[in-house]
Amino acid sequence: MELSAELGRLRGAVEAYLGGLFTEDAPYGRLLESMRYSLLAGGKRLRPALTLKFCEALGGDTKAAMPLACALELIHTYSLIHDDLPCMDDDSLRRGLPTNHTVFGEGRAVIAGDALQAAAFGLVSSAKLPPERTVRAVAYLADCAGARGMCGGQELDTAEDTDRSIEGLTLINDLKTGALIRAACALGVIAAGGGERELEAAEEYGKQLARAFQIRDDILDVVSTPEELGKNVGSDEANEKPTYASVLGVDKAEREVLAATERAKAALEGAIDSGGFFEALADALAVRKS
User: For the chain, which ranges sit under pLDDT 50?
Assistant: First the structure.
């Protein structure tokens, strides 16, 4: 299996599904335009790809899992819209394009994020899966997206009195970035009707993959350029915000990326076999340039 070709196949399927959302003619059409602007602005589509591949690896119906996969992308997009707002990171560039609020205004950007989050749970509830799997998927995603997951991590990341030691940064990352990536892996297992052993393996893989992903993000914020990354760089340093790269130094942070990557791959041994996809993906993300 060639990783880039497989990711391209998954990305194409996800883009086709997302492209059919929020197209209705409505009095609130400008809001829908704002939602689609950020949702269809590109990106790796990593989270939906993970859901689909975990479902496939366990013999599940990937067509039935597609609403779950794309719901994650709606949640992720809403979080990026809100993260870029002046009251958060105040960024002007995302995926090589002006951020949502710079195009549509702050108020509409907030509403667009809210609407994307609500639509995400509508998608999950519409999945053609056994009812017990749908209910479990809704509950799992809600937990990972809310105060015990992504939103809790965002709170810790913005609070002035948050612990910024390596332990504190790891907690922030496990919640803010890790919860949704962990959910992406787990929802694929849930969609396929996998057991607890498979679910635990997928969760650990997602947790370690997310750690490596976020540390690599911290490194790229130091060593990359806006052209390569598609967003502003150096913002963490400008805001005097500690990261793995600033606390450990780039070289040691790179070693942490590789260590987390190895832990991610080890988590699946004897539990889930994807023909090497998950291992190749982890290795590729560890050295990504954008």
Answer: none
